[in-house]
Amino acid sequence: MSYTHIIVKMKADGKNKSLSHTETNLDESFVVEHIIKPYIAGEIVIVDGARAESQAIEKISVFRSEEDIQQLIVETQNQVKPGSARERAHRLFGGRMAGNDVQSVLRSEGVEQVTRKVFNLALEI
Fold it and tell me: What pTM value is reported for the model?
């Protein structure tokens, strides 16, 4: 089984920095029908439990993996081996992987970027 994951980057709003919403372990057809098609049509999109106007979205990135996000996080954390126990703990809990940085995991080895393919499916081309 393959899993589809998305990152929706919102446009910056005045003084506020842009936010990113991440949804993981989705079905590709769900992403096409409920996120990509409404976005293309300029409709409201529900992402990460929030309503988002299509015009407020800067970018949608779509990824596919053969493993669910929890397994990918475990594999990424297991790759962090060199250094002392203190250095490993800092990287896992206070550094780049703090809070299970899902966006970093989605851009790692074993995860395929499929944004164009999914948009083509939504556009039926």
Answer: 0.80
Please state which of the ranges 11-15, 71-75, 86-90 shows the lowest mean pLDDT. 86-90
Q: How many domains would you assign to the chain?
A: 1
User: Using CA atoms, how far apart are residues 48 and 7, in angstroms rounded to an integer?
Assistant: 10
- CB 58: neighbour CB atoms within 10 A? 12
Question: Quick check: 24 and 79 in contact, CB under 8 A?
Answer: no
Domain that residue 62 falls in: 3-123
Block residue for tokens 């446009």:
11
What region does 42 belong to: left with phi over 0, alpha with psi -120 to 50, or beta? Answer: left
| HSE-up (13 A, CA, CB side) for residue 88 | 10
Spatial distance between the Cα atoms of 49 and 62, rounded to a whole number of angstroms: 18
More confident residue, 45 or 103: 45
Q: Which residues contact 22 (CB under 8 A, 6 or more apart)?
A: 5, 6, 7, 8, 48, 102, 103, 106
